[in-house]
Amino acid sequence: MKYRADIDGLRAVAVTAVILFHVNPIWLPGGFVGVDVFFVISGYLITQLLLQHTIERRFSLFNFYKRRIARILPSLIAVLILVLAFGAVFYDPAMFDRLGKEIFFAAWGLSNILFAQGVNYFAGGVSTTPLLHTWSLGVEEQFYLVWPILLFCLVRGLGVGKAKLVVFFLAVTSLILSEFSVLEGSYSGYFLPHLRAFELMIGSLLAFASSSAKPRLLNGNIVGASGSILILVSLVLFNQDTPFPGVYALVPCLGAAFLIYAGVENPVGRVLSRREFVAVGLISYPLYLLHQPIISAIKFFYPSLGAVWVLASVLMLALPSAYLLYRYVESPFRGLARNKDRGAVFRLSLLPIATCFVAVAGLYVALSQGMPDRLRLFNSFAYEVVLHQEPSFEKRYKQGFDVSTTEKNARVLFVGDSLLQQYVEPIRQALNVSHDNIDIVSRGGCVLAKGVDFNDTIADISCNQLRDRLYQSEKTYDLIVFSQSWLSYDKLIRNVACNVEDSECRQEKWLPFLEETISAFSKRAQKIVVVGGHLSVRWTTELSPSIFMTQKSYREAVRSLNVNNLGAAIRTDDYLRSALSRYPNVSLLSPTDIWCQGLIDTVCVANDGMWSYYANSIHLGDH
User: Which residues pair with 454 in a beta bridge?
Assistant: First the structure.
């Protein structure tokens, strides 16, 4: 298969777009479509190679997977080991726990399945997720598992012409399913392989077309210009609110397909073939792997660092590191894949073995809940911080529908999201109620108010099923305690009556749901308590336990820890008091009244001078 310099140039455009988007989405709001360009390139090159080998009757699954292993695994293993080492040194147990799970799934090419369980790719906090970008590798690797065998059977069984029609049908089917997922507002559709397959199949169809026709010079100029316009439009005009992938993904995908089809002999192709573009394109894979962990590390240490400085740091670190990975890790193994002797095959077989070791390491980290013992071993003070800042709910209770089947034992029911969870143990103790006398219906990131049409982004415990079970139950209690994050979930509630872009809507949206919830709970409890506006603090890395934590830096950070949303919490309390005033059986428990004092110069307590009362920026610890 003839080398195409312009395709490496197109890779350079794609990886640059993704990096700019991850550093600052404002700069290039549609930069995420760089991944879609990669999908088309991969579909084209893989199908072209498989078609050629199948037609020439030299198709070999062994050789195909040998080349894929040599291409994908060396750099991936190196990056996963670096990320694991970084997390072991700098992450607290909770963060390291999540990272271990991500490493396990990334090693097996299943990151997209993991993130489909509950990640919004466009949410602000994901910039600190070091392996979020590996979801696209998962999609490609899953495609590679199915596509060679399927294509071989189609071409050998039906011939090239009919096989092309079947591929077209499969692509259209995938596109329709993807569009339905977008219309349903499902975040998981962004990551799932069958809803992205049409993008790779666009490249595959291009490979079929390229095998039988060549564009004339004029056509090449027009097609190349059209492709560059489509990609430019998607980069500039698309943003996080664009329904994606679905039909909108056709814009960058067709743009990439047009550019590949046009070839080198046109103005755009000649630009993409320039040395600068090709140089970046050659290292685009390790550069793609490295950029997100580097951004995540920078944001970890310097969360307020300006985007220009973040980009400069990423380029200074990622470009030379990517070259080193390409030159001394990726290229030698790709050379081995072209070698047919047994020694080369044996050395390549070490890659899957190494992948297993990395996956097992990630699994161990996750199963050990972030290896807190590493802190006890290397930094006893950091381990002491872990014990003080550990959330009280997780070690005593469980999420979900934790309701006893015996009516007589239940006295108190707690309902809400993770912000409600932090009050379960303190309220239980204040009421002097035993654990056996409380029921809990709770899950993080879940709105359990009655009447809410909720777009659930987390799949471990279904929020909507949890809500249905809650209001189907007729079990009665002395007290029901209800709360949630009152300033969140704006775009996740489909049936909000007001405009969520309006600041006043942040509180007003709850009124009809509160009325339904209070009405339902009043039939089941003598008294209802609603926990009001929740307080948050400005969190810093000095407060997160790690191997390098020092007692001095922690104490200094603790003493400067202050509540940073007092005004919003007070406004939420005022709104809730007004909304609940007509219900004599309902009272408001205000966190502001508990933690803050003073009518004019209100001062809120977030620490005792020695330890933080918070486990993170929004959740209280067990201290």
Answer: 493
**Would you call 93 helix, strand, or coil by DSSP?**
helix
pLDDT digits (tens, 9 = 90+) for 138-163: 999 999 999 999 999 999 889 888 99
Give the C-alpha separation, 93 to 87, whole Å: 9
Interacting residues of 488 by C-beta distance below 8 A, sequence separation 6+: none
> What is the value of pTM for the model shown?
0.86
Please answer whether residues 20 and 44 qualify as being in contact, where contact means their C-beta atoms are separated by less than 8 angstroms.
no
Contact 540, 546 (CB under 8 A): no
Residue 286 burial (CB count, 10 A): 25
Q: How far is CA 539 from CA 304, 354, 421, 593, in A?
A: 12, 37, 20, 22
Residue 445, Ramachandran bin (φ over 0: left; ψ between -120 and 50: alpha; else beta): left
The per-residue pLDDT for 195 is 94
DSSP letters, 225-267, are: HHHHHHHHHHHHH--TTS--SGGGGHHHHHHHHHHHHH-SSSH
Per DSSP bridges, beta strands 586-589 and 412-416 are unpaired
CB neighbours (10 Å) of residue 305? 12
| d(C-alpha 504, C-alpha 506), whole Å | 5
Give me the pLDDT at residue 36, please.
96
Dump pLDDT digits (tens) for 368-404: 989 988 998 899 999 988 888 888 787 788 888 988 8
**Is the CB of residue 453 less than 8 Å from the CB of residue 495?**
yes
> CA 161 to CA 156: how far, in whole Å?
11
* Structural tokens at position 168: 């077209």
Q: What pLDDT, on the 0 to 100 scale, is given for residue 211?
A: 66
Q: Name residues of the chain where pLDDT drops below 70.
A: 118-128, 211-218, 407-409, 458-460, 598-601, 623
Q: Tokens at residue 57, please?
A: 């009757």
What angle (nearest 5°) sits at the alpha carbon of residue 351, between those of residues 348 and 354? 150
DSSP secondary structure, 494-556, as one string? TT-SS-TTSTTHHHHTTHHHHHHHHHHHHTTEEEEEEE-PPP-B---GGGS--TT--HHHHHH
Cα–Cα dist 509/308, whole Å: 37
107, 295, 341, 375, 418 from 135: Cα distances, Å: 11, 17, 34, 30, 27
